[in-house]
Design a protein that fits this description.
Oligomer: heterodimer
Order of helices and strands of chain A: EEHEEEEHEEEHEHEEHEHEEEHEHH
CATH class of the largest domain in chain A: Alpha Beta
Distance between the termini of chain A: 20 Å
Largest sheet of chain A: 7 strands, mixed
Structural class of chain B: alpha/beta
CATH superfamily of the largest domain in chain A: Nucleotide-binding domain of ferredoxin-NADP reductase (FNR) module
Mean pLDDT of chain B: 93
Shape of chain B: globular
CATH class of the largest domain in chain B: Alpha Beta
CATH architecture of the largest domain in chain A: 3-Layer(aba) Sandwich
Strand order of the largest sheet of chain A: 12-11-10-9-13-14-17
Strand order of the largest sheet of chain B: 3-2-1-4-16
CATH superfamily of the largest domain in chain B: FAD/NAD(P)-binding domain
CATH architecture of the largest domain in chain B: 3-Layer(bba) Sandwich
Largest interface: A-B, 44 and 41 residues
Low-confidence stretches of chain B: none
CATH topology of the largest domain in chain B: FAD/NAD(P)-binding domain
CATH topology of the largest domain in chain A: Rossmann fold
Number of helices of chain A: 9
Shape of chain A: globular
Radius of gyration of chain A: 18 Å
Number of strands of chain B: 16
Number of domains of chain A: 2
């Protein structure tokens, strides 16, 4: 059992939890993920690590309540324990001193960007970051990202953040890449699949290497089931063991989006059942 | 007493009933059936069955004990050499091991050793007493990486010798393929867990949710955590696909995913268990091993109207156990033999709509002596399915292996180990599918047992 030692609501439906797991906290690196399962009937939910504290022995996860399992997890409180918590899974981010890097997080995707930005800054990079959301209420980790970056830009789709730019993260990426004095060597872009797709297709034109972090459907997370197949170039990769980070310029984005929909019908069934008084 | 040449049949659920439920297919011998079958054993002075058993169960002894009505003693005899008899009685390929060697084969049917093993083991579970003797503590510590059949067997043998054993298991429960792979209707999960808890009673500690290599490397276990020896039993890992177009359409599963969702995560009980599975009206399982049979039979139970086995060779070459093939056919699984897919077709939303296949005929024998399937020109045809399960094997999982410096691997990426499980690193042993590539539960158990013997000798001299 793994205890929840901190819980915060970062935005409506977006929750942060710190979970006590000294063994994982000792080993985890930026870019890796964990799998969490609330109880013996629960799903194994993969979540990219948002932060970790080796001394405290905690792992921070941030998730949006989108389906049954994430809503159920969101109902857990400080002091509660989850049944299973396993990791660190996947390959770590390749951290080195690139020079100037651009870290882009969209929506809840800011969470996995944070430890990457931190590690890149520690490695000596000039870290320019962009965080974006539909509106200011949905912006998360602004202070943390500001601290982890040399400069931070904010975008909101509706312009509700009055000190940020009205528009998408791609608009800000374009502005930064158009200024040759920035000389961006590498980009990390993490967020909803559609956002990563547009980021990758934009940065391809500028020929700046762009790493994305995939969060496809998974079961075991250790390479055994192959549910998390991602087409990269002409190869099929498993996000759990080969990723979760891949070259965004080589991903088959349409396939990635279609594969997100495999269980939509089942999700609808479980939602209907709960609407009729099933327990959540 | 005249020789009885016919074995007592195993009672089963009717095929038309069982293909709609996940309860066990074979319901097990009654006391009278077990007695009658046990009486058929000739009690050979030099039994051929014992050396044919990978874990060398004293077969004549436990059968004599059943015949004498002392089933409790039979259970203990089994546990002397086999930590998982209720599992083995169900899933071992006895026809090619103990029963294949039985002297009665010369005249008629061999003794149903597997059924008797299951009978005695099940009664032991019912009674709930697992008397397994254990030597005094040696003060030596052993780490077992992987809690499947190889690791569990190695662990119990070493614990009996008095060593302190810890199993590191990546999933949320121990058992490996016994939990995620083999379906409930062949191997009830409660039985697996009961036999595992008996191993825990021996003092074996099982740490679940613990990914060997990621949490502890072998080096750290030996240098920092004070383990004197390590056994690698991480099993087969990454599933193979055919590398044909369309394999990433929605509705194409590896057999591992299809079975893990259903067995380990209990998707058959959705939404009470939250993990979903989508099965369409017509399912094609590509491959014809035991795993393929499990997937095809599972598909029917999950509501598929048609379930096909699609296999490139002929029926004589089907690698599954005969019993599994027969059960599958009885339940309504249809065979599309001498058939192999070249492409999976899909619609605009990305869902499978069919499979283009070629037909084959058997040509000249190849190097292995099996007649080679040869494509029939112009035989391209459509098989209408909406779900495809690839059951064509799997390669070794690299997660742990890539973290061990100096461990010799073969060209397929499997660990190189000698007959006793010894690897290229001192104190590090390996066995099961990680060494041999995908094989059977009992061969993995045999390897775990052989390694335990060698490890015990190594630890005694250390």
């Amino acid at each position: 059992m793994y205890k929840i030692v901190e819980k915060r609501e970062l935005a409506p439906t977006v929750k942060l939890m710190k979970i006590l797991s000294p063994e994982i906290a000792k080993k985890v690196q930026a870019g890796q993920f964990i799998i969490i399962r609330t109880d013996s009937k629960g799903e194994r939910i993969p979540l990219t690590v948002a932060d970790f504290d080796r001394e405290e022995g905690t792992i921070t996860i941030i998730f949006q309540e989108v389906g049954y399992s994430t809503k159920q997890l969101g109902n857990y409180n400080v002091g509660d324990e989850v049944l299973d918590f396993v990791g660190p899974l996947g390959q770590a981010t390749e951290i080195e001193d690139y020079g100037t890097v651009l870290c882009v997080g969209g929506g809840v995707g800011v969470a996995p960007v944070l430890p990457i930005a931190k590690a890149l800054k520690e490695a000596g990079n000039n870290v320019i970051s962009i965080i974006g959301a539909r509106c200011q209420d949905l912006l998360i980790l602004e202070d943390e990202m500001r601290e982890a970056s040399t400069e931070l830009h904010i975008t909101t789709d509706d312009g509700s953040c009055n000190y940020g730019m009205k528009g998408f993260v791609t608009d800000k990426i374009k502005e930064i890449l158009d200024d040759p004095s920035n000389d961006v060597k590498h980009i990390w872009a993490i967020g909803p699949v559609i956002m990563m797709k547009f980021c990758a297709s934009l940065t391809k034109k500028y020929e700046v290497p762009t790493t994305v972090s995939m969060n496809p459907i998974m079961v075991d997370g250790t390479g055994m089931c192959g549910a998390c197949r991602v087409a990269v170039g002409d190869k099929t990769k498993f996000a759990c063991v080969d990723g979760p980070e891949f070259d965004g310029h080589q991903i088959d984005w349409d396939l990635a989006m279609r594969r997100m929909n495999i269980f939509v019908e089942k999700e609808r069934l479980i939602t209907e059942r709960n609407a009729k008084g099933g327990n959540l | 007493m005249a020789l009885n040449l016919n074995r007592v049949p195993m009672p089963t659920q009717d095929a038309d009933v069982r293909n709609k439920n996940f309860k066990e297919v074979a319901t097990g011998y009654t006391a009278a059936m077990a007695k009658e079958e046990a009486d058929r054993c000739l009690q050979c002075k030099k039994p051929l069955c014992v050396p044919a058993c990978p874990v060398n169960i004293n077969i004549p002894k436990f059968i004599a004990e059943i015949a004498e009505g002392n089933v409790a003693a039979a259970g203990e005899t089994l546990k002397d050499t086999n930590a998982l008899p209720a599992v083995c009685g169900r899933v071992c390929p006895q026809e090619s091991q103990c029963e294949g060697a039985c002297v009665l084969n010369k005249k008629g049917a061999p003794v149903a050793i597997g059924r008797l093993e299951r009978y005695a083991a099940d009664l032991q579970i019912e009674r709930g007493d697992f008397k397994m003797g254990k030597k005094p503590s040696t003060g030596k510590k052993v780490a077992i990486l992987g809690g499947g059949p190889a690791g569990l067997t190695c662990a119990s043998e070493l614990a009996k010798e008095g060593h302190a054993v810890t199993i590191y298991e990546a999933l949320h429960c121990a058992g490996g393929v016994l939990m995620y792979g083999i379906p409930e209707f062949r191997l009830p999960k409660d039985i697996v867990q009961t036999e595992i808890s008996a191993i825990e009673e021996l003092g074996v500690e099982i740490k679940v949710n613990n990914i060997a290599g990621k949490i502890n490397t072998v080096d750290e276990l030996m240098k920092e955590e004070g383990f004197d020896a390590v056994f690698i039993g991480t099993g087969a890992g990454l599933p193979y696909f055919l590398n044909i177009p369309g394999e990433n359409y929605n509705g194409v599963y590896s057999a591992n995913e299809f079975l893990t969702r259903t067995n380990l995560m209990k998707a058959y009980d959705f939404p009470n268990n939250v993990t979903p599975i989508m099965v369409g009206d017509a399912v094609a399982v590509v491959g014809a091993g035991n795993v393929a049979m499990d997937a095809a039979r599972t598909a029917l139970r999950l509501g598929a109207k048609k379930s096909y086995i699609v296999y490139r060779r002929a029926i004589e070459q089907v690698p599954a156990r005969k019993e599994e093939l027969e059960h599958a056919i009885e339940e309504g699984v249809e065979l599309k033999l001498l058939t192999s897919p070249t492409e999976i077709l899909g619609n605009e939303e990305g869902w499978v709509t069919g499979m283009t296949c070629l037909s084959y005929e058997l040509g000249e024998p190849d190097d292995s002596g099996r007649r080679r399937p040869v494509v029939i020109e112009g035989s391209e045809h459509l098989v209408e399915v909406d779900t495809v399960v690839m059951a064509i094997g799997q390669g070794p999982n690299p997660v742990l292996l890539e973290t061990i410096d100096g461990l010799e691997l073969n060209k397929w990426g499997n660990v190189v180990a000698d007959e006793s499980g010894k690897t290229s690193i001192e104190g590090v042993y390996a066995g099961g599918d990680i060494v041999t590539g995908a094989a059977t539960v009992i061969l993995a158990m045999g390897a775990g047992k052989d390694a335990a013997k060698a490890m015990n000798e190594y630890l005694s001299n250390k």
